[in-house]
Design a protein that fits this description.
heterodimer, A: mainly alpha, 44 helices, 70% helix, B: 6-stranded mixed beta sheet, 6% helix, 43% strand, Anaphase-promoting complex subunit 10 (chain B), cell cycle (chain B)
Chain lengths: 756, 191
């Protein structure tokens, strides 16, 4: 009875029928209470987005996979201490469960509890265990501690990938795939941690996992890799796999029967779907390399990972679009999506379903797109070879035709090729992402250009390109890149918050409100949609409503740093500096490399005339983004306010060099020169500036002031007149007219001087 | 009607706008001030002047002149005062002669503007600017709006809403002038 129930549960999970799965599993646990069954039940709950249920039932369990799931549930419920305790209890000999996935989760916990170094260590470990764990690399980039992509995704990684893939390829493959999903329920034990976590997982995931409990033939499970079942976390691997494989997951022999290989399989599938959902948002290049059609499957698998990664990435980055993608499921909850978001699954599911028959939705899932595709291929091949049953599981089968896989056996050379292709892709994407996070945008752009067209023209890459242009203050190019991203993946919400800011800067209110409406209708529960809406209101100067929208965005995902920063900007516009400071500090707590928040704090202190603080904050922003001329010019302004004029002038020079199109540093330089009485110098600078921005009233007003000080009244009058013609603000009109009146006084005294 | 000679400037204002329309470069200064009144009937106190609800009103309860005092923590530039009054609803409670005074505190208020309202129904705009461009704004710590007399010689007065506007500050701190061109504005903030 136990076996039948377990099987039915896994089957339901694979088909993403959570309520059925939960019900059956509860009966299973009641009849045969054991940790393994609890693990299965927890994975059902997690996939159905009920982290709190999983939390309660897994409290106090000991086996590795259970601890992993428990930690996942804790993370989703924001109980980071417990998550940490579960993953790495005090007895240091205990292995982190689920290998790479476990390290990744632990890394996230450390990141959100402010222990940056430990986080970095764990992410690095995760990557060394599974080079295809893109999400870990992403997190490292966000923390600013990533190594060059060529070092990470190198030949050693290639070998590891191949090994894992081949190991997993065997029968258990099918299970693997599914296993990869977080839920890896039982297999964990069988899995060996160090095998490349994800990859293998995918393929084998199911298998391995299954191994532990299943009665299936499970050929493969065990051997596979070490990649511990931990996949679960990231495993979204093959969302598709779930579909396809759900049935048999693991053991090849049974695979076909749609017997779930093991609980894992199911979970994987589920996970995968989830991930996939995530990915969808991402629109990353999904590559599904089609390797005789099998790729699809593989890619799916990969994606599941990517999904994961994506989630991770998304999670990591404040941009949490996850919910958006999951729209399908409707979960809307951003974090959950990351992990298992039931929604994701749903979305995944939907995706997969559309995909196709057996093909795993991976193709779709491909968002993560990058390497996955490649991976997928290899997987597919492998899977097919390993076992028929498993093959199915993999769902990756791209064309469905292979569903039965059974026969495909990837030759090792193909695997090697596949692995190196994937790594090649990952290298480019990784390096591009790393550079863009280090604010070396021009370099990042040139790397992205090296990508093959089919990858470049995907939502994820185009949106990264858009972000790079945004940081270089080239809003027109950014607009272009983002609109192409929208065309490539109109359902994706990743990066759309930045796009809305670009439109805000360009003052395109029509486009901005259209974008906001579309995003809200795509996913009402995504943080990015409300950010876009808020930007819309802010452009119309309705700061109170804008603030409400940004606060809503924060509520939907409190780990989204940009939403906090935008709230801060609105508070400042409403002159509520205290709350503004609080918002910026919250943003920094989430992501201390979010230079916009450092800049915001610097601006507040500048307004409040706390110049020392202001200089410190601008300097922090400058250290993170040393190429931004805007930050440099404000740092210079703060230095000038502190009367450190030499340093201020030097900073302005650097700002001018950094971006020739920015007129502000020159203007500030003129200001500083006036204050140190170098009137000629100032006039020279302003003359130059006049050529660049002939319609700027403040240039003429300042020149008027200078001429007045020089007693060159004709010139002063001329310039004041020009300044007034350019329609300055009311305050300035008053100032200028007052200055003009004062000009007349000496004239009146010196009779005979004709001014007009 | 004959112009009275009292006050620096006296003008007659008739009618009133049903809508409140203010220039973009003005902003509401009310939140920065402490508001008080010389007297009030319970239930119709000073908060009715600031609640954005035209159905609630402040009703005075004492001798004329009735005073609304607006005190700021630091000197601010003010440009416009807008009142919502309605003769059709308030009849003899509608203010007729209004004097606006400014100064550092109660001890040195000086009248800067006088207006006479004639059957007003809606928002009445009272600009505080002088003729000289140097006098566009009134730079002051305190503003006092005094109701000197009402229509039909009523004793007490109703005021439904008061708004006070000043210029918008420079969004970019520490600059001598505001920026007008797109190139400057685009590069002047990081969002």
């Amino acid at each position: 009875m136990e076996a039948i129930l377990a099987d039915s549960v896994r089957n339901s999970l694979q088909q993403l029928m959570y309520r059925n799965a939960i019900f059956m599993c509860e009966r299973l646990c009641a009849e045969f209470p054991s940790e393994k069954n609890l693990q299965l039940l927890a994975s059902c709950y997690l996939q159905n987005n009920q982290a709190h249920c999983a939390y309660h039932i897994l409290k106090g369990t000991h086996i590795a996979e259970c601890r992993y799931l428990f930690a996942l549930a804790c993370f989703q419920m924001d109980l980071l201490n417990e998550a940490e305790a579960a993953l790495s209890p005090n007895e240091s000999n205990v292995e982190v469960p689920n290998g790479a996935a476990g390290h990744f989760l632990l890394g996230l916990v450390y990141r959100y509890t402010d222990r940056k170094q430990s986080a970095i260590n764990h992410f690095n470990q995760a990557l060394s265990l599974d080079p295809l764990l893109w999400a870990a690399y992403e997190e490292l980039c966000i923390l600013g501690a990533a190594e060059e992509a060529t070092l990470v995704f190198d030949d050693g990684a290639s070998l590891l990938i191949q090994k894992q893939y081949l190991q997993r390829g065997l029968p258990s493959q099918s299970s693997q795939e599914t296993n990869e999903d977080h839920e890896i329920t039982s297999n964990r034990s069988s899995v060996s941690d160090d095998v490349s976590p994800r990859k293998l997982k995918h393929t084998y995931g199911n298998n391995l996992r299954e191994m532990s409990g299943n009665s299936y033939a499970t050929t493969s499970n065990q051997p596979l890799h070490g990649g511990p079942t931990s996949l679960p976390f990231y495993s979204t691997p093959s969302p598709m796999a779930t579909q396809a494989q759900l049935s048999g997951v693991r053991p090849p022999p049974v695979c076909r029967n749609a017997l779930p290989n093991g609980p894992n399989m199911r979970t994987h599938g589920a996970d995968v779907s989830q991930r996939v959902t995530m990915n969808s948002a991402v629109a990353g290049p999904r590559r599904k390399f089609v390797d005789e059609g099998k790729l699809r499957k593989v890619s799916e698998r990969l994606f599941s990972d990517s999904g994961q990664r994506r989630s991770m990435r998304l999670a990591g980055e404040s941009v949490n679009a996850n919910s958006s993608t999951s729209v399908a499921s409707g979960n809307g909850i951003s974090h959950s999506s990351k992990y298992l978001g039931g929604s994701k699954l749903n979305s995944v599911v939907s995706r997969s379903s559309t995909l196709r028959k057996s093909h795993p939705s991976s193709s779709e899932i491909a968002d993560e797109g990058n390497h996955h595709g490649v991976y997928g291929e290899s997987r597919l091949n492998v899977t097919s070879s390993t076992s028929s049953p498993c093959g199915d599981n993999r769902s990756l089968e791209p064309e469905g035709a292979t569903s039965s896989h059974g026969a495909v056996i990837l030759s090792s050379s193909k695997v090697a090729d596949g692995a190196s292709d994937i790594l090649g892709l990952l290298r480019l994407l990784g390096e591009g992402f790393r550079l863009s996070r280090l604010c070396r945008c021009q370099d990042a752009l040139s790397i992205y250009m090296k990508l093959p067209q089919k990858h470049y023209n995907t939502g994820w890459v185009l949106s990264q390109v858009g972000k790079a242009y945004f940081e270089m203050v080239d809003y027109l190019e950014a607009d272009r890149a983002f609109s192409r991203a929208r065309i490539a993946s109109p359902y994706s919400l990743d990066g759309m918050d930045i796009y809305s800011t670009v439109l805000y800067h360009l003052k395109e209110d029509m486009k901005l409100s259209y974008l906001a409406q579309e995003l809200i209708s795509t996913d009402r529960l995504a943080s990015q949609s409300w950010c876009a809406m808020g930007n819309c209101y802010s452009l119309q100067k309705d700061h109170e409503t804008a603030l409400k929208n940004f606060q809503r965005s924060v509520q939907l995902n409190s780990r989204f740093a940009y939403a906090h920063t935008l709230c801060g900007h609105e508070y400042v516009a409403l002159e509520d500096f205290e709350n503004g400071i609080k918002s910026y500090q919250s943003a920094l707590r989430i992501d201390s490399r979010h230079y916009n928040a450092w800049y915001g704090l610097g601006m507040i202190y500048l307004r409040q005339e706390k110049f020392e603080f202001s200089e410190h904050h601008f300097r922090m922003a400058f250290q993170i983004n040393p190429l931004s001329s805007v930050i440099m010019s404000y740092l210079g302004t703060a230095l000038h306010a502190l009367r450190r004029n030499d340093e201020a002038l030097e900073m302005m020079e650097r700002a001018v060099l950094a971006d020739k199109k920015n007129p502000l540093p020159l203007y500030q330089k003129a200001n500083i020169l006036v204050s140190i009485d170098d009137l000629d110098g100032a006039l020279a600078v302003l003359e130059e500036l006049k050529e660049y921005a002939p319609c700027e009233s403040s240039i003429y007003a300042l020149m008027g002031n200078i001429y007045k000080r020089r007693n060159m009244y004709d010139n002063a009058m001329l310039h004041f007149g020009l300044a007034l013609d350019l329609k300055p603000s009311a305050t300035d009109v008053a100032l200028i007219k007052a200055a003009i009146e004062k000009l007349h006084v000496p004239d009146e005294i010196d009779e005979g001087d004709s001014m007009d | 009607m004959a112009e009275s000679s009292e006050g620096e400037e006296e003008g007659k204002l008739t009618g009133g706008n049903p809508q409140l329309v203010v220039d973009d470069d003005l902003r509401d200064m009310a939140k920065k001030a402490a508001w008080s009144v010389s007297s009030c009937k319970p239930g119709n106190g000073v908060s009715s002047l600031r609640d954005d609800n035209l159905d609630t009103y402040w009703q005075s309860d004492g001798a004329q002149p009735h005073l609304v005092n607006i005190q700021f923590q630091k000197k601010v530039k003010l440009q416009l005062v807008v009142l919502y009054v309605d003769f059709k609803l308030d009849e003899s409670y509608t203010p007729s002669k209004i004097s606006i005074r400014a100064g550092d505190g109660f001890h040195n208020l000086k009248e800067i503007k006088t207006v006479e309202l004639v059957k007003p129904t809606g928002w009445v705009y009272i600009s505080l600017s002088g003729t000289d461009p140097r006098e566009t704004f009134v730079n002051t710590f305190m503003l006092q709006i005094a109701v000197l007399s009402n229509h039909l010689n009523g004793r007490d007065t109703h005021l439904r809403q008061i708004k006070v506007y000043g210029p918008r500050p420079n969004p970019i701190p520490h600059q001598p002038f505001h920026f007008t061109s797109t190139e400057f504005i685009t590069y002047s903030i990081l969002r």
